[in-house]
Amino acid sequence: MPCHWIFWNLNFLLIFQFANEYFNNPKNGRIRGNLGAEV
Question: Model-level pTM?
């Protein structure tokens, strides 16, 4: 498999995990809390 395919999938997984946690825990999400975007 080409390298760009692997990196694209890793980025996709990170974005998917971020979106999943963002929508599931909008106030006390682990990632969002680290970014200091708690509302």
Answer: 0.39
